[in-house]
Amino acid sequence: MDSPPWLRRALRLAALSQNGLTFTKDTFERDRWEEVRRLAAEMLAEGTGTSPDQMVARLAAETGYATPKVDVRAAVFRDNQVLLVQERSDGGWTLPGGWCDVGEAPGVAAAREVEEESGYRVRTTKLLAVYDKLRHEHPPESLHAYKLFFRCDLLGGAARSSDETTAVGFFAEDALPPLSLARVTERQIRRMFEHARDPSLPTDYD
Fold it and tell me: ∠ CA 165-167-172 to the nearest 5 degrees?
């Protein structure tokens, strides 16, 4: 399910203002782009429950040419169950993952996130999906991101929590816990189970 049209428009306005402020050398143009950023911030604030001033500050922190961020998620299976971690920030469960670091390959990032968040060591084996976050059932937010889902084979380690996670566990498809929807949706996890049952499936993409 696609995100609401207002969110796509607000993020597009935010990106246009960021690009305009990056390249303009004219004071009057800068004022106009800052006004566009303020309008985008007001739209995003209304839809996400934050204040316009907070949203302006969040948008202003992004500099340079505006592009989507890259989020990686790891699908690790054991005995027909998938590895999930409980997020400290909201109490919801998710596939291990997070933002890619600059200079880090996505597959490497996925394996690193698994070990950091769950205590398990894995090997990345296949890119299962590339999803545009705006085209899935995530709550509205101020960032546009592409989500890369990797199949990872379990190598070793043991369950442990981290600074970001409070619990670690393996869950069957019909017994998923409450999810951190900002990070992963039930539909996405069920699709990962389909990939696990049929490794010949091609990579999904939007």
Answer: 120
What is the domain partition of the chain in residue ranges?
Answer: 5-60, 69-205
* Predicted confidence (pLDDT) per residue in 97-133, tens digit: 999 998 999 999 999 999 999 999 999 999 999 999 9
What are the tens digits of pLDDT across the range 35-70?
999 899 899 998 888 898 998 898 898 888 888 999
For 108, what's the count of Cα atoms within 13 Å in the CB-facing half-sphere?
6
For domain 69-205, give the fold. Answer: Nucleoside Triphosphate Pyrophosphohydrolase (3.90.79)
Distance from C-alpha of 146 to C-alpha of 121, rounded to nearest angstrom: 24
Percent helix, percent strand, percent coil in the chain, to nearest 5: 40, 30, 35
Asked if residues 22 and 114 have their Cβ atoms less than 8 Å apart, the reply is no
Distances (CA, A) of 145 to 67, 115, 182: 8, 23, 11
Type of residue found at 172: A
**Could you give the CA distance from residue 171 to residue 84 in angstroms, rounded to a whole number?**
7
- Residue 131 φ/ψ region, left for φ over 0, alpha for ψ in the -120 to 50 degree band, beta for the rest: beta
